[in-house]
Amino acid sequence: MVVQTGFAASVATLQADDLVGEALSDPLLAGSLWVNVALMGFALLAFTYMGRTVTDEYAKLIVVATIAIPAVSIASYLALISGLTVGVVDIPGRGELVTLWGRYLTWTFSTPLILAALGLLAGTNFTKLFTAVVFDVAMCVTGLAAAMTSQALWLRWVWFALSTAFFLVVLAVILGSWSRDVESQDAAVQRLFGRLKYLTVVLWVGYPVVWAIGTEGLALFGTGIAGLAVTSWLYSLLDVGAKFVFAFLLVRFLAVEQPTVTRQGLGSEGAKPADD
Amino acid sequence: MVVQTGFAASVATLQADDLVGEALSDPLLAGSLWVNVALMGFALLAFTYMGRTVTDEYAKLIVVATIAIPAVSIASYLALISGLTVGVVDIPGRGELVTLWGRYLTWTFSTPLILAALGLLAGTNFTKLFTAVVFDVAMCVTGLAAAMTSQALWLRWVWFALSTAFFLVVLAVILGSWSRDVESQDAAVQRLFGRLKYLTVVLWVGYPVVWAIGTEGLALFGTGIAGLAVTSWLYSLLDVGAKFVFAFLLVRFLAVEQPTVTRQGLGSEGAKPADD
Amino acid sequence: MVVQTGFAASVATLQADDLVGEALSDPLLAGSLWVNVALMGFALLAFTYMGRTVTDEYAKLIVVATIAIPAVSIASYLALISGLTVGVVDIPGRGELVTLWGRYLTWTFSTPLILAALGLLAGTNFTKLFTAVVFDVAMCVTGLAAAMTSQALWLRWVWFALSTAFFLVVLAVILGSWSRDVESQDAAVQRLFGRLKYLTVVLWVGYPVVWAIGTEGLALFGTGIAGLAVTSWLYSLLDVGAKFVFAFLLVRFLAVEQPTVTRQGLGSEGAKPADD
């Protein structure tokens, strides 16, 4: 059962293992991971407690999607700490680079939850939510590919450009469609949506910026362990805002305000109440 | 294109291949896999035949979800037999351990189908089904991580604890929400749900127990091929109950009784018939 | 963090890397990949432009699913070009074989979108779409397993047979259920559905045929780079028809005709407007 994949192929394995082990035992880098394990563990418990008073089934759906965000996040950070989703990429002309590729993998699962929570709050319909989620997943998977690609440096930036293009579709849905959808909601929902929208858009723009200037990209902080730790801290801080603060504001609002969200149909004339 | 991942990193590859090949050619271990390929193959054909008389579209949805359970299972066991999803983990202080990690991977796909069938039978709504499935997938993925983690023994048990915590959410939905939801169904549906509920809860508790005492955990049967075969047989027998017996009871009921299941809306006031 | 998986296990890694690199730098093979990157990139832009005039939310859902097809495809071909999803399988009695396994992986994501677009056009319900998608994903994943399996040649054909069995379920839904569903639509939708149905069925049958006669199967064109390039071109041409032509016809129709599609409920008596 001998299969070599592009992912797996290597001879310099022992050395790679050393590099990964060395990186993960760096206190600054490890700190950037453990802090989010602790924070997201707290979030899981706190949000479950806060969300218990929500009674409306639709609001509960938003709460569950929101609570699942720190659940994915804690698993993501533990996987990095365990070294399960950390590897070494050997890029021509740059050398061996430790990559915490698990971040890009788990964003595939956490970011659709953030979009689901945001879109459901706006009372959007299935078509617009589907659009946002499909291009969001495409954005994350191509981001993962960017980090994994070692054949040539320019190919990494092709992936980056493709990922960014998909990101623009997500931004268009948030800033365009959903901002219009939310106008039929009451004032409190509109205010919260506006706040969460700007939080999300500003911080999400931060991720590709960190990618571009961090170890995966231009490596402005160097490609050594110090640069890796700085990059990791930047991502971790973005995660605190885009996941923890986002989820906290949303769950608190739903628990305190018990809002009613008006939802849209799929809009086809002649359509029966939909099951799809 | 040289990438080393945590998954792939190793020098003792030839030796690992020998270990996997040796394990898979053990008759006792191989038997624990082939018996389920045969059983699930029979199930696929039998359930498709049994389910052909179901006419109600909602009941058909339950039948399809149920038939998909042995479909995933047969692929899961063939992947183990093919060695595609079998590997070797080198745990500090314990040595090299053959792991049939494909089991944990494919549960990610089969267990949501079981929950979908059970929840749809109870007539539950999207929010509760979403809750069960999200935390079920989180449980399976963290279980996979537990089996893969080799950095330290204690980290494997951190994963195990996290996976068990997610399992508690799934249990709460089954034993709490769905047991209340099913009360609005007719008596025959209630009886079947009660039976399937206890079958599922009891057997699903068995899986983490086998993990804890089997080769991945405390290794009460040893870490050699004999211990591996015993552990594999225990999982295979649990699968027979939790997948084959579960699916058989459900498909037979739907085909014979042709029940009508009353379904809940999402409950938001002001909601139009939903598309999301 | 030393884990050896079936996927990863190998010592002949450097040699494998050479094989992959050699294959990917073959102009004929590389051409079969780049041509689809270019075509699908053009498709993404063109379909987005063409689809902008669609106003009905249900028709928009079909457009988004359709536009996502070239989005997945462009990422799939870039991943092959990057060598991320290309590997070497060492099959007993046949030797080392370069495999572009990423094709089978990404079909798992692109083919459900094709089925979603086709089923939504027919106005089918959730049960039938769920059936088609579940068995389609099972078909793709077992096809991936077929390409990855190196333990024995006959095991590859067991996977192939299983994958083909799942394919028959998909065909039954398209040719049976959906062909009946579409009869309640207006004449223009029926005509387009008929055309897309035959395009899909004929071309989709081509994929297992190419697998069977190509490098993964009987290797009628040899197992060298020339055989690989011929096989890759056959797949690429099938993709042009089954993805680009399919999507072009569908988006153009929706943009020009602005049709109204009548949708079915889940059909359970006593059901409230559904949320699941």
UniProtKB/TrEMBL annotation, chains A, B, C:
Matches recorded under Pfam families: Bac_rhodopsin (PF01036)
User: Which Gene Ontology cellular-component terms appear in the entry?
Assistant: membrane
- UniProt-annotated location(s): Membrane
Q: How does it sit in the membrane?
A: Multi-pass membrane protein
Looking at the UniProt entry, the stretches that span the membrane are 32-49, 61-84, 104-122, 129-148, 154-175, 196-213, 233-255
What UniProt keywords are attached to this protein's entry? Answer: Chromophore, Membrane, Photoreceptor protein, Receptor, Retinal protein, Sensory transduction, Transmembrane, Transmembrane helix
By sequence similarity, the record places it as follows:
Belongs to the archaeal/bacterial/fungal opsin family.
According to UniProt, the name of this protein is Bacteriorhodopsin
The scientific name of the source species is Halomarina rubra
Identify the taxonomic lineage of the organism of origin: Archaea, Methanobacteriati, Methanobacteriota, Stenosarchaea group, Halobacteria
